[in-house]
């Protein structure tokens, strides 16, 4: 199977981890030898309720018996998609009332960028250095990391970049700016939180010049930071909200949400301003709705902040210089990329799944399912400390 994986399935890097997966349940993934791996990554922040959560699986199975895809997005009334969009509106500020469902986060970013241009009649987009919003051409255009996009130029014109948390750079947002796009908490950059009311100041600047604020909640959204959406921590409501990953409970989804007035602009002049075949797929929408209900009606979000403190307590080690992020969106920073690589690879051998971040080579990603137990957190931290001790001993 490994040979076929490399021969027939396109790869994203020269050295994939290449675990042969047999099955997954709860906080564990099992390989074909039935070895259990405790999952501290959750499919890169996607498996909000862990693997095979009974409520998500039941929702999928129930919808499978009704119908699968029946028509391109937006034409037929399909209850799972309607109920999902309605549930989002009921749990968001009043100006975020209408949702366009897509197949992935990057597709939702594309729609959000188009909507900002359509609404303002402007072409300028301002993003952040070291930002990551996806890998399609529009999303890549607002990626603030030239090394990853140089080979694919030319990209969208009129995109400029400001430094996250740098208030002096807010002057780059002008009356030529259609939209400012930011991750509420920067992901690939190393789980960088906004500081000193930064997002409020961005919001104020956008209002002053008539630009729309797009917040990318693809990673911090759906309870991962202890609130349903990360922006709730920072007193800043966007004009357009983008989500994905954890919304689907392990199924592929994206969404962008705005006011009805804004979203209706995609209906006309031109018609079909944004279109997708499989967006709002009934099975995926059913899974997403079940995920949202469980996150909002359980105590998982409150537990998330308690679990954050547990990680911080049990990952005290000389080779962990800092733990960035909020809730269960954490990045442990080591002294070097080499140490980070050793930790991630050695921990997999020990039965613990960790992963990298895109642009911060010293960061160890820790984004487990929200359903992870406190006992599992301590167990995983003990594995990390054991590996760090071995690395420290080797280099002493």
- Largest β sheet strand count, sense and barrel closure: 7 strands, mixed
Low-confidence stretches: none
Strand numbers in spatial order across the main sheet: 4-10-9-8-7-5-6
CATH architecture call of the largest domain: 3-Layer(aba) Sandwich
Query: From the alpha-carbon coordinates, what is the Rg to the nearest angstrom?
Result: 21 Å
Could you say how many structural domains there are in total?
A: 2
Give the helix proportion (percent range). 25-40%
Number of helices: 13
Distance between the termini: 40 Å
User: How large is the share of residues in beta strands?
Assistant: 15-25%
Cofactor: pyridoxal 5'-phosphate
Family: Belongs to the class-III pyridoxal-phosphate-dependent aminotransferase family.
Keywords: Aminotransferase, Pyridoxal phosphate, Transferase
Pfam families: Aminotran_3
Task: Please outline what is shown here.
The chain is α/β, with parallel strands linked by helices and 396 residues long.
Overview of the structural elements:
One of its GO terms (molecular function) is transaminase activity. It holds the Pfam family Aminotran_3. It comes from Xanthomarina gelatinilytica. This is Acetylornithine aminotransferase (ACOAT). InterPro entries: Aminotrans_3, Aminotrans_3_PPA_site, Class-III_PLP-dep_AT, PyrdxlP-dep_Trfase, PyrdxlP-dep_Trfase_major, PyrdxlP-dep_Trfase_small. The chain is α/β, with parallel strands linked by helices. It has 2 domains: 148 residues, Aspartate Aminotransferase, domain 1, CATH 3.90.1150; 242 residues, Type I PLP-dependent aspartate aminotransferase-like (Major domain) (Aspartate Aminotransferase, domain 2, 3-Layer(aba) Sandwich). The chain is 36% helix and 17% strand. The chain is built from 13 helices and 15 strands. It has a 7-stranded mixed beta sheet with strand order 4-10-9-8-7-5-6, sandwiched between helices. Strands 1-2-3-13 form a 4-stranded mixed beta sheet. Strands 11-12-15-14 form a 4-stranded antiparallel beta sheet. A hairpin with a 4-residue loop joins strand 2 and strand 3. Helix 12 packs across helix 13. The radius of gyration is 21 Å and the shape is globular. The mean pLDDT is 97.
């Amino acid at each position: 199977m490994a040979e076929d994986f490399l021969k027939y399935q396109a790869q994203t890097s020269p050295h994939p981890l290449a675990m042969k997966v047999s099955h997954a349940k709860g906080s564990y993934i099992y390989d074909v030898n039935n070895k259990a791996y405790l999952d501290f990554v959750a499919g890169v922040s996607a498996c909000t309720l862990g693997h095979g959560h009974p409520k998500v699986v039941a929702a999928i199975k129930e919808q499978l018996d009704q119908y699968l895809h029946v028509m391109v997005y937006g034409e037929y009334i399909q209850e799972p998609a309607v109920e999902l969009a309605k549930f989002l509106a009921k749990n968001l500020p009043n100006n975020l009332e209408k949702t366009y469902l897509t197949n992935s986060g990057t597709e939702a970013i594309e729609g959000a960028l188009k909507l900002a241009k359509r609404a303002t009649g402007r072409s300028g987009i301002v993003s952040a250095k070291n930002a990551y919003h996806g890998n399609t051409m529009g999303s890549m255009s607002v990626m603030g990391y030239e090394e990853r996009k140089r080979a694919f130029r030319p990209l969208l014109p009129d995109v400029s970049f400001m430094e996250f948390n740098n208030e002096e750079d807010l002057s780059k947002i002008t009356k030529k700016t259609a939209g400012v796009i930011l991750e509420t908490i920067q992901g690939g950059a190393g789980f960088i939180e906004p500081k000193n009311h930064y997002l409020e100041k961005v919001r104020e600047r956008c209002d002053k010049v008539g630009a729309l604020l797009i917040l990318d909640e693809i990673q911090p959204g759906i309870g991962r930071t202890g609130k349903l959406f990360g922006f709730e921590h920072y007193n800043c409501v966007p004009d357009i909200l983008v989500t994905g990953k954890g919304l689907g409970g392990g199924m592929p989804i994206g969404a962008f949400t705005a006011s009805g007035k804004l979203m209706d602009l995609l209906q006309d002049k031109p018609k079909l301003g944004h279109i997708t075949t499989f967006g709002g797929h009934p099975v995926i929408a059913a899974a997403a709705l079940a995920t949202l209900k469980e996150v909002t009606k359980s105590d998982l979000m409150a537990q998330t902040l308690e679990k954050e403190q547990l990680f911080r307590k049990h990952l005290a080690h000389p080779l962990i210089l800092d733990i960035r992020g909020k809730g269960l969106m954490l990045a442990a920073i080591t002294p070097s990329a080499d140490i980070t690589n050793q930790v991630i690879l050695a921990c997999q051998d020990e039965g613990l799944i960790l992963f990298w971040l895109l642009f911060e080579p010293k960061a160890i990603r820790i984004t487990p399912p929200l359903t992870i137990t406190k006992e599992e957190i301590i167990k995983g931290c003990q594995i990390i400390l054991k590996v760090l001790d071995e690395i420290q001993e080797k280099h002493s």
